[in-house]
Design a protein that fits this description.
By secondary structure, the chain is of the alpha/beta class. The protein has 17 helices and 21 strands. α1 packs across α2.
């Protein structure tokens, strides 16, 4: 398969793409036509409408529930239908959403040889295909749930749909076939590590850090991480050929800094902070430990609730370091999000065009818990970056003064505003590399990654720029900046056929269609002559979502 590009130099490909909402669901991937505007669904709004091919929406079947998150969907499918049907809905989705042959071949032919797989913590050694009989599960409900669901230890009424380990193993084998490496991203944990549909337990408030960390009786998260590392260690080398690395936790403690005082509505605290500080002795002990690892860093790491997350991630590094995986060429890909930190830690004067104090704080912590050799061989720092949530980088179809409801730095049709804004925002990649160089020994050679990005200019598709020129400018600029800073960039997300307007800037396949990129397939006819067939890359839905 040959790829017909607009111009190899003018249209670069990302280092990798995410296969989002395959093994860990987010609602906006499945909203159907005209039913949602926000990537991060607002409180009290239910956006998920379907999970094809079996669940095609409430208008198709009144027993098909709308949903907030994957555990919410799983529970309501069982309530309205049956345990067997709920398991079948998830399994058929997972079997059809991403095609190991067709999709991996397409990515390889595009020159993309890395993918990131967000997955649930809940896994099983059983395969639902082994339990079908005339399209019905043969075990009783209790037996089925024991095999294909996980009880959330922090919510009595929450069950998670289990991911078959065999499915991940088969993916890794297929990746090796097409010279593709996959990063396994542990996207969710029991109790939820952050608020939002991606937590898996939304609209419930997160309990992982309040109920399941070291200060509690159920330090389940650390043990889960150990179990996942141990499982991967047991896999044969031919399977691990398809594995690039593993991420201990996605966006740990995301938004904790914003909710440092809890969730407040009309001046009332309706939820306590979900990231409590470490006990004073534990916090001081960890700070002392970090201070003792003084090689080059200049940024001081302050006290605060963020230490709970940083300590958990530090422990995760130790588990990986002591495993055989890094000796077998597997990377540890450590994701940290700036929203973990309370904004009050930094003054407004610290923020500059090419300086973000949170980035330097992360770099300083990273320099203290890893060595220069580890950072250039197997320890990868992953900082996600979206223009869609960055006020200084947002673009919108309307002015900022539209009832003060739209925050953006440029209007889509104002090329001067757009160029000035994006030129500043593209400095982000160099700023990250500079922070690593200044805080870490041999920072020039440290492995860096941005595991999530998109061409989207705003989190609301109601005002986001959807014109081809703006999307292309945002995309190309981000990729070129990342390449210059030697940072691997991964698009979020590969396919989103039921995402309606979200597809334009979030679905990689639909984005390629918008950019006019096609594939040329060469075959032979009965006479031995070559036939070239041009295929348009697109992301059209195969099933209803209504």
């Amino acid at each position: 398969t040959d790829i017909l590009l607009l111009d190899d130099d003018s249209f670069p490909m990302p280092n990798g793409v995410n296969i989002g909402s395959w093994l860990s669901l987010e609602d906006y991937f499945f909203v159907g036509k005209g039913h949602a505007n926000e990537v991060a669904t607002n409180d009290g709004t239910i956006a998920g409408r379907c999970l094809p091919p079996l669940h095609t929406g409430p208008l198709s079947n009144s027993n098909n529930p709308m949903w907030y998150s994957e555990t919410d969907l799983f529970t309501n499918l069982m309530r309205k239908n049956s345990v067997g049907y709920a398991i079948s809905v998830f399994h058929e989705h997972r079997k059809t959403f991403f095609n190991f042959e067709k999709d991996l071949q397409l990515l390889s032919s595009l020159g993309i040889h890395k993918i990131r797989i967000p997955t649930s913590w809940c896994m099983t050694d059983d395969n639902p295909d082994d339990y079908f009989l005339n399209n019905n599960m043969t075990d009783d409900n209790k037996g089925l749930l024991e095999k294909f669901a996980c009880q959330d230890p922090f919510f009595e009424d929450v069950l998670w749909p289990a991911v078959p380990r065999s499915m991940i193993i088969n993916l890794l084998k297929s990746c090796a076939k097409y010279d593709i490496k996959a990063t396994l991203d542990i996207h969710t944990y029991p109790g939820g590590t952050s608020p939002g549909t991606f937590s898996g337990v939304w609209p419930r408030w997160p309990r992982f850090w309040t109920h399941g960390d070291a200060s509690s009786e159920k330090d389940i998260g650390r043990q889960l991480w150990k179990n996942i590392v141990h499982w991967l260690e047991l896999l044969d080398d031919d399977i691990l050929q398809g594995l690039q690395g593993i991420t201990p936790m996605n966006e740990p403690g995301h938004l904790a800094g914003i909710f440092a005082n809890g969730k407040i509505v009309n001046g009332n605290i309706i939820q306590k902070p979900y990231l409590p500080p470490l006990l004073p002795d534990a916090a001081q002990s960890y700070l002392n430990n970090l201070s003792s690892n003084n090689n080059k860093h200049t940024t001081k790491i302050p006290d605060g609730p963020h230490l709970r997350v940083l300590k958990w991630l530090d422990d995760a590094v130790d588990v990986f370091r002591e495993s055989s995986l890094q000796k077998r060429g597997i990377h540890l890909i450590m994701n940290v999000h700036e929203s973990l930190f309370e904004p009050t830690l930094f003054s407004d004067s610290e923020y500059k065009e090419d300086y973000n104090p949170q980035t330097y704080l992360i770099a300083a912590w990273w320099s203290r818990i890893t060595t220069a050799t580890e950072r250039r061989t197997w320890a990868v720092l992953d900082i996600h970056h979206y223009h869609a949530w960055s006020p200084q980088c947002m673009g919108a179809t309307t002015n900022n003064n539209d009832n003060n409801t739209v925050i953006a730095s440029y209007r889509c049709n104002n090329i001067t505003e757009r160029t000035d804004t994006l030129t500043k925002c593209f400095k982000w990649a160099n700023s990250l590399r500079t922070a690593i160089i200044e805080e870490c020994v041999d920072g020039t050679n440290a492995l860096l990654m941005s595991g999530e990005m998109s061409a989207s200019t705003h989190h609301s598709v109601k005002v986001s720029c959807l014109d081809t020129d703006t999307l292309k400018s945002s995309y190309k600029g981000q990729l070129n900046a990342a390449r210059q800073a030697n940072i691997d960039l991964y698009w979020w997300s590969y396919t989103m056929p039921y995402g309606d307007l979200f597809r334009s800037a979030w679905s990689f396949k639909h984005f390629l269609y918008r950019m006019g990129i096609t594939t040329n397939n060469t075959s032979s006819n009965n006479n031995g002559s070559s036939i070239i067939t041009t295929t348009i890359i697109d992301d059209e839905p195969q099933y209803p979502c209504q």
